[in-house]
Automatic annotation (TrEMBL):
Pfam families: BPD_transp_2 (PF02653). It comes from Sediminihabitans luteus. Residues 1-44 are annotated as: Disordered. Residues 1-30 have a biased composition (Low complexity). It is a multi-pass membrane protein. The chain crosses the membrane at residues 63-81, 93-114, 119-136, 156-175, 187-203, 249-268, 299-316, 322-342, 349-366, 386-407. GO terms for cellular component: plasma membrane. This is Amino acid/amide ABC transporter membrane protein 2 (HAAT family). Keywords: Cell membrane, Membrane, Transmembrane, Transmembrane helix. It comes from the Bacteria. The keyword Transmembrane helix applies.
């Protein structure tokens, strides 16, 4: 018998194997977090945006409100404070912020359709027009359907027509979406583009109802704050001077509506409706195979997005107090889509930033003759806003196609927890299968790098 077959050699081999197994066992994490319970701060992330998002998600809901409410109040105070670096020269800063509030509402509604559900809608301006014309038809003296002389109070007619505008635009979204949402991609985009043009052409040609190219004037608005200084109230278009002009008041109304829209959309995102939208956006065929009623949830997105667009249209009609078809052309529809793509599809706060960029930058250059000591023709630069937005989108698609603030929500949002749970289950099965309770058949999980395996 050779030396290697002696009892002492065999015992040494067994001892060495046990020692190696013990080292492998000690190098492996002894406990793994159960699925869905990994601390938010420990989830894999990259970049400043993800770090801020994870920091925000880790806060308790009362803490989020304690931080969010002062921030919202600070935003609301900007037209009153008028910071020198932000205020505009050629146009009133309060009016610019009021316009931003309207476009931000549109961006939130369009983001539900394009960003959450992945439906390319090029005619969203049609819902915007329907909301505006609903209020104008019910409150303008030029309209044959004017109800302010019968049962609507002139002081609160706009507020009474706001839910009507929401309902009408939601129904229009239902009527449009029912036959067309079975289409996908470019075909759906062409149909929605045609819808937007049909609405504009109807408003331009139905002279007996909409006034045609003349439009509808003297649209109702909230008559609040009537005084000798403001005989028609603070929301009147005649209140165009001073710090607290009509634009500031309408901006505050838009902030309230934006907060309500964000709360509704945010709750939907965290529900099974939001998860279904993400599944449809990522792969509609796979979602349908897995049992998701894709048509129903796409119709949900269309109706909700249309309703939010109707709110913005009603806001526009009350603020301008004059509705004309030329304001609802396809160019504005492209600008709304530009705000969503620029801010980041699927990120409801990112699209608000995109709306601010789209509205603020052209108005920033209006009336300026120099910037940082460099002489410029601000009016001429503002006239080329479509060229600059087009170049910005081209560069964005090349270097950052997901937008400035991309959405974090994906199908595998909790992929790390699922991965941990699967490895733990495989380890238990392996230990039970060999009868020795050993777990070293499954490689150790590196908790620090396992997020890369998603």
């Amino acid at each position: 018998m050779s030396t290697s077959d002696t009892p002492d050699a065999t015992s040494a081999k067994a001892t060495s194997a046990k020692s190696t197994s013990a080292k492998a066992t000690t190098s492996r994490p002894t406990s793994l977090p159960p699925a869905g319970r990994t601390p938010v701060a420990q989830r894999p992330h990259a970049g400043l945006g993800d770090r801020l998002r994870l920091w925000w998600d880790a806060l308790a809901r009362p803490t989020q409100w304690a931080i969010g409410v002062p921030f919202i109040l600070l935003i609301a105070a900007l037209p009153v404070i008028r910071p020198p670096l932000l205020t505009t020269v050629g146009t009133d800063f309060g009016s610019v912020m009021a316009q931003f509030g309207m476009v931000a509402l549109i961006a939130i509604g369009l983001n539900v359709v394009v960003g959450q559900a992945g439906l390319l809608d090029l005619g969203y301006v049609g819902f915007y027009a329907i909301g505006a014309y609903t209020v104008a038809l019910l409150t303008s003296p030029d309209s044959p359907w004017n109800l302010t002389d019968d049962w609507l109070s002139n002081d609160w007619a706009w507020l009474a027509c706001l839910p009507v505008a929401i309902a009408v635009t939601a129904i229009s979204g239902l009527i449009l979406g029912s036959p067309t949402l079975r289409l996908r991609g470019d075909y759906l985009a062409i149909v929605t583009l045609g819808f937007g043009e049909i609405v504009r052409l109807l408003a331009d040609n139905l002279d007996s109802v909409t006034g045609g190219g003349r439009g509808l004037s003297q649209v109702a608005y909230p008559r609040v704050g009537v005084s000798e200084e403001h005989p028609n109230g603070v929301f009147s278009a005649g209140n165009a001077s001073g710090t607290l002009n009509a634009g500031v008041w309408w901006f505050w109304v838009s902030i309230v509506l934006i907060v309500i829209a964000l709360l509704v959309v945010g709750n939907l995102e965290r529900s099974r409706v939001g998860r279904a939208w993400v599944a449809i956006r990522e792969d509609e065929d796979a979602a349908e195979i897995m049992g998701v009623p894709t048509f129903r949830f796409k119709l949900w997105a269309f109706v909700i997005g249309a309703a939010i667009g109707g709110i913005s249209g009603a806001l526009y009609a009350g603020q301008v107090q004059f509705v004309v078809p030329t304001n609802f052309n396809v160019i504005n529809s492209m600008l709304f889509l530009c705000a969503v793509v620029l801010g980041g599809q699927g990120n409801k706060l990112g699209v608000i930033v995109g709306a601010f960029v789209v509205v603020y930058l052209p108005n920033f250059f209006l009336g300026r003759t120099e910037i940082f000591g460099i002489p410029i023709d601000g009016n001429e630069i503002a006239n080329y806003k479509y060229l600059f937005f087009g170049l910005a989108l081209v560069l964005l698609m090349i270097f950052r196609p997901q937008g400035l603030f991309p959405a974090r929500q994906k199908l595998l949002t909790y992929g790390r927890e699922l991965y941990v749970a699967a490895r733990a289950a495989a380890r238990k099965v392996s230990g039970a299968g060999d009868g020795s309770g050993r777990a070293d058949a499954v490689p150790a999980v590196d908790v620090a790098t396992e997020g890369d395996a998603r």
